[in-house]
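Marked as duplicate of an earlier ticket. Keeping the data here for the record.
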Amino acid sequence: MVSFHGGLGKDPMRQAEPIKAKVLVLHGADDPYVPQKEVSAFQDEMKTSKADWQMNFYANAVHAFTHKDAGSDNSKGAAYNELADKRSWQAMKDFFVEIF
């Protein structure tokens, strides 16, 4: 499972269960739509679920960092970041080489 600038929340009523899928999360370090509390809760869930997971943070990147049509103004909360786009795409390809 690969997530690019995705939401990380879960329904608090859902019990954490073992996660068998390998997980790669590619996340803008400055994403205002995913608060640190949500990031921490996600990481705790991955640990509790004994998942095989990775999470990469990209500096100066906000939400939608892979979308060229998102503009370039980070202050809007969603913006394209060429370096984060390239690095995250390469991380996904490396992840696929590892698991397939």
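See parent ticket for discussion. DSSP finds two helices and three strands in the chain.
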